[in-house]
Amino acid sequence: MANDPLSLTFAALADPTRREILARLAEGEATVNALAEPFDMSLQAISKHLKVLERAGLITRGRDAQWRPCRLEAAPLEEVDQWVDRYRDRWEERFGRLDRELHRIQNSTEGEKNHE
Amino acid sequence: MANDPLSLTFAALADPTRREILARLAEGEATVNALAEPFDMSLQAISKHLKVLERAGLITRGRDAQWRPCRLEAAPLEEVDQWVDRYRDRWEERFGRLDRELHRIQNSTEGEKNHE
DNA sequence: CGCATAATCAACCTAACGGTTGATCAACTG
DNA sequence: CAGTTGATCAACCGTTAGGTTGATTATGCG
């Protein structure tokens, strides 16, 4: 597999188990055992999934005695969002030209508001 | 690899060659040979990449004599966008609570506008 | 028909993925 | 210290990904 950041992120997301783990982490930190609990899978397998997520920068791990709490890190998701954003107008075609223009204007005024 | 739609899409995107192909197709339809031209790779390899993209629904292929023109299909990218959208507030933390609330309100009014 | 072109099919190879089991390390607890 | 718990490491295994080369199919052209 390619090892550029975006490829690592997409590859990490291309697995339902890992996406479920991220969904769980969106609710707060969790230990490896807590994350493994819902799955019919060995703890070691979950540990490997976490390593994949960590390599992609999607999680970080702390240290609390013998527990290694995992925390969601959204930065790579923002990269994904920015990448996919370049194709946004492709699926907004159905709105037609006028409505697409409205979206564009709306986005640009949002830009002014946020970035000033 | 898992074969649910989202996993197929993420997996298809987890390769720089395939992402470049999509970028090329964003400019318009193209034949397999045209798509293969920039890459130092056999035509068969590109053909396989196209099959992966097709299985994910990211492209469709027509038929024009011996050419099989490829066309970008953005629907799966919209699915990706919707999935990642659930985490948007995670990387917008830096805007602070007030601004995040503004975003939430803004989104909900957009929803009213689009879905009615 | 005979041939060139566009693209796919088929077989093969290496490396990585996703899972297993068993052993090990690290930290708390009695 | 001995034992338990949390988690990782290591080796292994079957399958798939991503590339190659060689053969094959389909279309257009002289």
Task: Walk me through this protein's architecture.
The structure is a homodimer of 116-residue chains. Chain A is mostly helical and 116 residues long. Chain A has 2 domains: 70 residues, Arc Repressor Mutant, subunit A; 30 residues, no CATH class. In chain A, 62% of the residues lie in helices and 5% in strands. The first copy, chain A, starts with a helix and ends with a helix. At the A-B interface, α1, α2, α5 and α6 of A face α1, α2, α5 and α6 of B. Chain A binds a DNA duplex (30 and 30 nucleotides) through α4.
Quaternary structure type: homodimer
Pair of chains with the largest interface and how many residues each contributes: A-B, 33 and 34 residues
Number of helices of chain A: 7
The main sheet of chain A comes to: 2 strands, antiparallel
Element order of chain A: H for helix, E for strand: HHHHEEHHH
Which structural class fits the helix and strand makeup of chain A? mainly alpha
- The CATH architecture name of the largest domain in chain A reads Orthogonal Bundle
Structurally, how many domains make up the residues of chain A? 2
List low-confidence stretches of chain A: 107-116
Q: What share of residues are in beta strands of chain A?
A: 5-15%
Main sheet of chain A: which strands, in order across?
1-2
> What is the name of the CATH topology of the largest domain in chain A?
Arc Repressor Mutant, subunit A
Radius of gyration of chain A: 18 Å
Q: How would you describe the shape of chain A?
A: elongated
GO molecular function, one term (chains A, B): DNA binding
InterPro entries (chains A, B): ArsR-like_HTH, HTH_ArsR_DNA-bd_dom, WH-like_DNA-bd_sf, WH_DNA-bd_sf
Protein name (chains A, B): DNA-binding transcriptional ArsR family regulator
Domain HTH arsR-type (chains A, B): 1-92
